[in-house]
Hints:
Oligomer: single chain
Shape: globular
Number of strands: 34
Helix content: 25-40%
Amino acid sequence: xxxxxxxxxVIGARVHxxxxxxxxxxxxKLVVITGLSGSGKSSLAFDTIYAEGQRRYIETFSAxxxxxxxxxxxxxxxxxxxxxxxxxxxxxxxSKSPRSTVGTITEIYDFLRLLFARASDAYSYNxxxxxxxxxxxxxxxxxxxxxxxxxxxxxxPIIRARKxxxxxxxxxxxKQGFLKVRINGDVKDITAGMKLDxxxxxxxxxxxxxxxxxxxxxxxxxxxxxxxxxxxxGENVLMVLDQDSNEARFFSRxxxxxxxxxxxxxxxxxLFSFNSPKGACPNCNGLGTIxxxxxxxxxxxxxxxIKAGGFEPLGEYKTTWIFKQLEIIGEKFGFKMTDxxxxxSEEAMEIILNxxxxxxxxxxxxxxxxxxxxxxxxxxxxxxxxxxxxxxxSTLKRWAKEFMDEVDCPVCxxxxxxxxxxxxxxxxxxxxxLSNLDISDLTAWFHDLENHLSDKQKRIATEVIKxxxxxxxxxxxVGLEYLxxxxxxxxxxxxxxxxxxxxxxxxxQLVGVLYILDEPSIGLHQRDNEKLIHSLEQLRDIxxxxxxxxxxxxxxxxxxxxxxxGPKAGKYGGEIISKGTPEEILKSNTITAKYLNGEMKIxxxxxxxxxxxxxxxxxGATGNNLKNVSIELPLGQLICVTGVSGSGKSTLINxxxxxxxxxxxFNGVKKPKPYKKIEGLEHIDKVIDIxxxxxxxxxxxxxxxxxxxxxxxxxxxxxxxxxxxxxxxAGRFSFNVKGGRCETCEGSGxxxxxxxxxxxxxxxxxxxxxxxxxxxxxxxRFKGKSISDILNMTIDEAVPFFELxxxxxxxxxxxxxxxxxxxxxxxxxTTxxxxxxxxxKLAGELAKKDTGNTFYILDEPxxxxxxxxIRVLMDVINxxxxxxxxxxxxxxxxxxIKLxxxxxxxGPEGGKGGGNLVAKGTPEEVAKNKKSYTAQFLKxxxx
Length: 943
């Protein structure tokens, strides 16, 4: 054990698979916890140390406050000493709200709003002139200076360019004691019953005073009083009319256009907030996008008739009111329900889609009888739109959304703000322009800004600009210079979201805190790794303790202290197999040490596959930052798409290529980013995309239900003789429906006992002893095992058990092949690590019969994987390619890139500096490229 005063002591940790471990973790050091995927790293870091830190924090609240927070369960550990306040920076912590952006998470946007509210110049949206505002005293001085000796009228603008007869308004003005008004440029006396043409637009001003300007005290006093009265009636705006030249000038206490007189309210920070009604665009409510009906989604196949279900929202013909209305419309426009939709006239389609009300009569040709019909039809498009906008039901909203596309708001053009907010500028840029700049460009703009500010602006803005610059530098330091602060947080990858939170934490400059990070290097190119490690070292050097769960070689080698958990995963892990400094770890005999010191490594293949000679060609992709990229993907090979973070890999593959393929093979509706053409679709049969999202968020979800092997197992149990005698169906063996499950715990195996303000306690269900099913169901056995015993089997035990049942064997064998032999079939999805969840997805796809012509897309499959896990995973992937399939992997991990048959490198930089095809070819060819950052690191791997 280390010295006691400066360590965190964990004694007797037994969470998940941890085997009663004791460990001393040095404080104020960079500590890396590593080990195979599923060995218990997250159980120690997050479910033990972080959970206990959180619990202790909540315990400091009063019992009254705790009842609202809900208690936190005490982790299964004997004792933890030396724990500081804990902050966990996990991968899944950013908000999924469409209103959350990079700028709002990091507070940069809040400071920008403050800067624009205090130091910007306003411009007129009519003429582009700089807006002016005056105090009453300044207005008086200007009138005396500019109109000296002239006859003037002081006017209060009442109506601006609006229609109406305004009879009541003239009466009201007369009651207030005024005798004259100026209507459309002409001064007139107010007469009884005076009114205007109600269908024309009018400008009306009240004449407050008529005066000859001179410098006498009496006139000055009179002008001051008239200004006050005019401002009251004109809502802080007045006009001065020169009687001789008939020219009018505007003056305002608010910001005002000197030519047209439009005025803005004085700027406050909420005028620039898209989350406040004062600043948000009224059309899209500050979201920047609106949902628009897509006719192709309503009528996916115009060759179908209405009767056959040609209108997707209506489905096939039923005897309902809506179909009766369509039959009446058919009577009027002469089409039948069996006619193809493409043959129906435009006029009829207009009524079907957008609705209409009319009466008409039809004379029967045979009987000569005239029938009266009445159409009162809302229209399919209108109905969908009204359900989306006004329905209180989330289910109906979701249904309506299926027939709509998200498009940029036409009013604010995606800027989220109302028109006035966009005409406040600093150095010719408005707040939306700045939000759309890459962080690197924004930093450069702020460095140059002081040269463009007036002395007054400098005094006001210095502190705010300093805060903004600091936060931008922190984002630059964690390798996020390619993001824009307007980027929605729900579009960020796990690694990006985590590094943004890290940058925010570095910005807060806290001391004496324990930070726990979960693989912050995910999605980060080797080139930017140095920046990330440096940021963590900075956090450590100001007096914080850092624990990082990580597999990255650079991070492990730069750690002050390493804890290696293993030896294997799941029930075969959960022990500390080595600990110490990097030098001490290298001497140990663990799998991690062998990979670090070069004893074990993933071998470079002796030869690269040639593929099947066919290609998939994508030409002219220009989405986001892509600069007219054209790629040729050789089929029957393992293809890697590489490049620094933000270079355009995801745009090219996930947002352009995958939606094109998905639309072609499965009628997917996601709209691809712009491209010119695609060729070679006939060479593949289907496309499968395996991404990083979790497989299930409820304890009822597990690997058996996700891979659908549980369906086959339940079917197998219904085939046993005892089950057939009793007449049990598959539902009898499900723990999600009534019948076979234990009703005391509703099939969950545990009972939750609520303790009001103490943490909920989970106890094993006393009726079924945690077996989830009732006694009768458990009496049904296959090879001596009940359905509950099978859910508690590990995959390694299930493989020989189901060897003679091909449907089940194939699925459990693929789970074993991807290295998940240690998990149980019934393990709750919520307890699976990120790497395990993704491999379960992969196994689910691999278990399906492949055609030998399938195109797989994997997005960073090495997330959460140890060197040894990567070797196992790549063996499975290589087997798939050997069968003739094509696999495309987006990846930063050099161990995967060096195994590829073909590499496409996008870059060279992130953001605006990326979006070009930098290199392509075999790893050996790419490694020779001088411009590619990937090549610099790949060279060392191929030696």
